[in-house]
Design goal:
Layout lengths: L1 H7 L3 E5 L8 H11 L5 E5 L5 E2 L2 E2 L13 E4 L6 H10 L4 E4 L10 H17 L2 E3 L5 E3 L19 E5 L2 H13 L4 E6 L8 H10 L5 E6 L5 H12 L4 E5 L4 H11 L6 H11 L2 E3 L2 H13 L8 E4 L4 H12 L9 H9 L24 H10 L5 E5 L13 H8 L9 E4 L13 H15 L4 E2 L2 H18 L4
Parallel strand pairs: 1-2, 1-5, 5-6, 6-7, 9-10, 9-11, 11-12, 12-13, 14-15, 15-16, 16-17
Antiparallel strand pairs: 3-4, 8-10
């Protein structure tokens, strides 16, 4: 862990290829560290400039008067070997090669250059992140590879991604759901440090409670399985695999020079190691949201409250399709309804269809509380209808939230289903959508995860429950 800490907690960063040209990668890497409040020393390196962004600029790395821990390379591939030799003289610990056009091109001369770079790095004891990657995002230290990343303080999620663009999309999307990151690592071709090293680092990192991975291929399959299995014993690991089909496999080869391999085989390996496999980006984020907000889901028996008529029928179908068990209403719960004077006590089902009520003797809040307290249910889903009646115009999100009283579910896992439609700009100011938008924020503030459909909530709940079941198995 001490070796990894030196790599991922640099006290100084040099940007080789730094520039005053706002359109250049050297400029963007330099200004990002400044704008995100990097706590260490920043050294621009470029023989063409005396100053970059009002900081002294050095002609080469060896001219920097102080020690350098971390180097970001924004120069072309042919210049990298000489730069690495200088890094060796300067005792640099790690070099992030944003530089691309290596083995991912499929050209033999580019692959040979990549091998030469690795040999130089090993000779000097330098670790390589990349090449062909965006590098490190660590908000606690003020390190970022993009100005589009959130500026919030550190969170508890760790991200490992072969793709820089995917890393940015994942971090930005997760932040909309209130999830922030301890680390995000884009590692590209994985010439030296690979997926095993990054999982091991985050497994031991006290700031990281959950690990997300976007994976295109494996460098060390057996080691990956062993590291993953040890990690999932105490931290969830969610994996999204790129290159699952024939065209995706071709794209992977030209993107990060990875061998995509059999997705079915990989899924089997991941299941044995206790990892959670996501089918797409939406599911990937949904699962992370469920782990973050919901307490451990210990089983798959679900009680569904909210909705009416066909909505209830479809909710049952979607839960079952996701692998959840929509159990019938237990007799002790019916007796509770009867004692409360609910006229349809012997008719009500799961999912609860509120259209069969004769009057208001059974409120949404009452039913949510009764379901949550019953020991036969492992989790509760609450379906929020879309406000659209004229009499609801004067309500707000707090009023709407009180109708369901989801706080009464705690400590049992409770998932909210909040409708989402593809609205255009013409609908942006509609009163009903304003309530929905505010409701989502209120739910997250209360620590309750929400999903746009029952299907998405069901899939996330089932895969989360599978992880907790695996984790509780005897060794």
């Amino acid at each position: 862990m001490s070796n990894y800490s030196e790599i991922f907690n640099p006290q100084s960063i040099a940007v080789v290829g730094a520039s005053n040209n706002p359109n250049s990668s050297g400029y963007r890497f330099t200004i990002c560290q400044m704008d995100y409040g990097y706590q260490g020393r920043i050294y621009p390196v470029n023989p063409r400039y005396a100053e970059v962004l009002r900081m002294p600029c050095y002609a080469c790395i060896k001219d920097i008067p102080d020690t350098v821990d971390y180097v970001i390379s924004a120069v072309s591939a042919p210049l990298v070997p000489a730069m690495l030799e200088e890094c060796g003289q300067k005792k640099v610990k790690v070099v992030h090669l944003f530089t691309g056009r290596f083995s991912e091109t499929g050209r033999p001369e580019a692959a040979n250059l990549e091998r030469e770079i690795l040999a130089i790095a090993k000779r000097h004891g330098i670790r390589i992140i990349g090449p062909n990657c965006m590098g490190l995002y660590k908000p606690r230290l003020g390190i970022s590879f993009s100005d589009a990343m959130p500026h919030e303080t550190t969170g508890t999620l760790g991200l490992i991604s072969q793709s820089g663009q995917a890393a940015e999309e994942i971090v930005r999307t997760a932040s909309l759901m209130g999830l922030n990151f301890s680390n995000a690592i884009s590692y590209g071709n994985a010439l030296d440090l690979n997926e095993c090293d990054y999982v091991q680092y985050l497994s031991e990192d006290p700031d990281t409670e959950m690990i997300l991975m976007y994976l295109e291929g494996l460098r060390e399959g057996r080691r990956f399985f062993d590291v993953l299995k040890k990690t999932t014993a105490h931290k969830p690991v969610i994996i999204l695999k790129g290159g699952r089909g024939e065209s995706g496999t071709r794209a992977v080869a030209s993107h990060t020079a990875s061998m995509a391999g059999s997705t079915l085989m990989l899924e089997s390996i991941l299941a044995q190691a206790g990892a959670v496999f996501a089918d797409n980006m939406e599911e990937f984020i949904d699962i992370a949201v469920t782990f973050h907000y919901a307490p451990p889901i210990k089983g798959i028996r679900v009680g569904v409250s909210g909705g009416a008529g066909g909505t209830s029928v479809l909710a049952a179908d979607q839960c079952e399709a996701a692998g959840l068990d929509v159990i019938p209403i237990p007799n002790d719960l019916r007796q509770e309804l009867k004692r409360r004077g609910v006229s349809v006590w012997d008719w009500i089902g799961n999912p609860v269809d509120y259209s069969i009520r004769e009057n208001e003797d059974l409120s949404y809040a009452d039913m949510v509380e009764i379901l949550a307290k019953n020991q036969n249910f492992d989790l509760i889903m609450v379906v929020f209808g879309e406000p659209h009646h004229e009499h609801q115009k004067n309500t707000n999100a707090d009023d709407y939230l009180r109708q369901y009283s989801m706080e009464n579910c705690k400590p049992k896992p409770a998932l909210a289903i909040v409708p989402e439609r593809s609205t255009g700009l013409d609908h942006y100011d509609d009163w009903n959508w304003k309530i929905i938008y505010e409701l989502r924020s209120k739910l997250l503030s209360a620590g309750i995860p929400y999903y746009p459909t029952v299907k998405r909530a069901g899939v996330a709940a089932k895969k989360t429950a599978d992880y907790w079941r695996y984790r509780n198995l005897p060794s």
